[in-house]
């Protein structure tokens, strides 16, 4: 009987451990997540200059990351969907992103990345030892959004892109 | 003890599984109608006719050049601002009609000017380097001997519209 009780307790404890680890493995949790926020991502092109030059929205969106489970993480971006009111789709490559600033300061990539329908690597980050434990709770990447130049090949109308950001922990 | 070891072995892969997390933004883009017409004069707009030209008419190939940028299919029309030339001079005629002037996209038939817009050219959306969006216009004046000597002035109107 004593043995049976011991076994039941042992079984319960190990299953709790399984559950806790299962929670940690879920997408988005309180210790690991990626959140993307738009601040100024819309474009209106109404003049010849608007169509003929690249348009830039500074600090257009922010990607907020927490990665407590792993000091290393990657961030990817892709255009996951697009639509238009004209029947003519604008290619994903019309969009590009460029890091404007990061808080806190880390060694990161400030290059312009042209988007596509497949994942493009934006950042490959390794945080310093004890970064998450002792100093910071989130990392905020503030990005510029660049469009075009669009030119004259797209009819007047509304075009919409959805950009998906993904954080992976190797 | 072996059971504990088994559970620990089972636990380890859960910790080391690659995980991914994601979020998204939307990017709306609105494009309005944009049409731009550029006209270049390739010859003097002051024309002095000699005897031969009175008899046979005056023709100038490539009198104007046009460059069109448009994100919609377009039409370019031409008309005179007034039905008759403005005339000055003692012997000038006040009734020389605009139709003395004919214009044509190079290679096309001439159209005689009136105050009613007439099609000069049409094309598809694109920049000015797109085939058909840049072209020359020929000019022809045939007053004959029906009008007195003098200085005659006429204003041409070019209008770019969406098809």
Short description:
The complex is a heterodimer of chains A (170) and B (163). Chain A contains 3 helices and 9 strands; from the N terminus they run H-E-E-H-E-E-E-E-E-H-E-E.
Which band does the percent of strand residues of chain B land in? over 45%
The value of Rg of chain B in angstroms is 33 Å
Q: What is the N-to-C order of secondary-structure elements of chain A (H for helix, E for strand)?
A: HEEHEEEEEHEE
List the uncertain runs of chain A.
12-27
- In what order do the strands lie side by side in the largest sheet of chain A? 1-3-8-5-6
> How many β-strands of chain B, per DSSP?
11
How are the SSEs placed, and which strands pair?
The complex is a heterodimer of chains A (170) and B (163).
Chain A: H1 2-25, E1 32-38, E2 43-45, H2 48-52, E3 55-67, E4 72-84, E5 95-103, E6 112-114, E7 120-126, H3 131-135, E8 139-147, E9 157-169
Chain B: H1 2-16, E1 19-31, E2 35-41, H2 51-56, E3 58-70, E4 74-80, E5 86-88, E6 101-105, E7 111-112, E8 118-123, E9 134-141, E10 151-153, E11 156-162
What does this structure look like?
The complex is a heterodimer of chains A (about 170) and B (about 160). Chain A is an alpha+beta fold and about 170 residues long. Chain A is about 20% helix and about 45% strand. Chain A has helices at about 1-25, 50, 130-135; strands spanning about 30-40, 45, 55-65, 70-85, 95-105, 110-115, 120-125, 140-145, 155-170. Chain A has a five-stranded antiparallel sheet, with no helix packed on it. In chain A, a hairpin with an 8-residue loop joins strand 5 (about 95-105) and strand 6. By secondary structure, chain B is mostly beta strands. Chain B has two helices and eleven strands, in the order H-E-E-H-E-E-E-E-E-E-E-E-E. Chain B has helices at about 1-15, 50-55; strands at about 20-30, 35-40, 60-70, 75-80, 85-90, 100-105, 110, 120-125, 135-140, 150-155, 155-160. In chain B, a hairpin with a 5-residue loop joins strand 6 and strand 7 (about 110). Chain B starts with a helix and ends with a strand. The chains are: A alpha+beta (about 170), B mainly beta (about 160). The interface between A and B is large, with 56 and 34 residues. Strand 2 of chain A pairs parallel with strand 1 (about 20-30) of chain B.
């Amino acid at each position: 009987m004593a043995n049976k009780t011991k076994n039941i307790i042992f079984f319960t404890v190990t299953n709790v451990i399984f559950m806790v680890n299962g929670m940690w493995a879920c997408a988005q949790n309180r210790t690991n997540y990626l959140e993307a926020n738009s601040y100024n991502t819309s474009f209106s092109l109404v003049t010849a200059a608007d169509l003929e030059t690249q348009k830039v929205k500074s600090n257009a969106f922010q990607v907020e990351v927490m990665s407590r489970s792993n000091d290393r993480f990657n961030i990817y971006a892709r255009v996951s969907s697009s639509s238009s009111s004209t029947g003519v789709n604008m290619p994903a490559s019309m969009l590009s992103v460029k890091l404007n600033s990061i808080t806190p300061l880390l060694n990161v990539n400030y290059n312009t990345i042209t988007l596509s329908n497949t994942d493009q690597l934006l950042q490959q980050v390794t945080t310093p030892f004890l970064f998450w434990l002792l100093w910071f709770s989130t990392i905020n990447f503030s990005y510029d959004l660049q469009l075009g130049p669009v030119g004259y090949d797209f009819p007047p109308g509304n075009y919409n892109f959805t950009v998906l950001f993904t954080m992976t922990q190797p | 003890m072996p059971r504990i070891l088994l559970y620990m072995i089972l636990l380890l892969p859960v910790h080391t599984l690659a995980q991914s997390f994601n979020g998204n933004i939307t990017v709306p883009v609105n494009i309005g109608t944009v049409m731009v017409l550029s006209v270049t004069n390739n010859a003097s707009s002051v024309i002095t006719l000699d005897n031969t030209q009175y008899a046979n008419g005056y023709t100038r190939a490539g009198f104007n050049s046009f460059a069109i940028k448009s994100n919609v299919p377009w039409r370019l029309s031409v008309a005179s601002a007034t039905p008759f030339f403005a005339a000055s001079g003692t012997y000038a005629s006040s009734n020389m009609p605009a139709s003395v002037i004919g214009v044509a996209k190079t290679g096309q038939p001439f159209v005689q000017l009136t105050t009613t817009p007439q099609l000069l050219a049409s094309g598809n959306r694109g920049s000015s380097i797109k085939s058909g969006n840049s072209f020359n216009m020929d000019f022809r004046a045939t007053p004959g001997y029906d009008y007195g000597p003098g200085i005659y002035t006429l204003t041409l109107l070019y209008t770019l519209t969406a098809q």
